[in-house]
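Batch manifest, entry 17 of 40.
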Amino acid sequence: MSSDTKTIDILTRIAVATEKIAASLEAQKRLPAIVAAQPAPAKPKPGLSVDNVREELAAWLPDLEVTGGLDGSFTVKPKRYLHQTWAQVNDIIRTLGGRWESNGKQGSWRIPK
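Output type: structure tokens
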């Protein structure tokens, strides 16, 4: 393989990686707009437990971590980027009185007590 061929191969790989990064950043930019357009969440359901929250989110549990706080609130964290699934999970959590708390890759939903 000649030096020119190696250079072209490296530049091609960089271009592909750059396109993937740009697509990911563009998707992340749209997320705050989706969150801002959401109506206010429902009032929290009384007597809600971690098991109730997990039951409501059963279809997505492999991709979510549900924990209960000492104050009686719940946190639902995505284990990976959820793509279109995010909106479906967000709708369910909002019916439970929860709200998305954006914090970059550390974003999560919080369902108050």
